[in-house]
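Marked as duplicate of an earlier ticket. Keeping the data here for the record.
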Amino acid sequence: MSDLRKIVAIVGLEQYNAGLWKKIKGLLSGEAELTQLSDIDLEKKNPEAAKAIQEADCVFMSMINFK
């Protein structure tokens, strides 16, 4: 069992920041498990996204836009 905190980042209209979240994932690798998702994962009701959100210690959401 991992002692790492589980963080989920859901990037909506700010998908241009995806590279920034990848950098943050690298910086936190020893302290947290960061899962990066998009608003498309939510719209498609991705079961892996739902599981990641359910198990997360913290969820960041940024500019989510549903059609």
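See parent ticket for discussion. The chain is about 35% helix and 30% strand.
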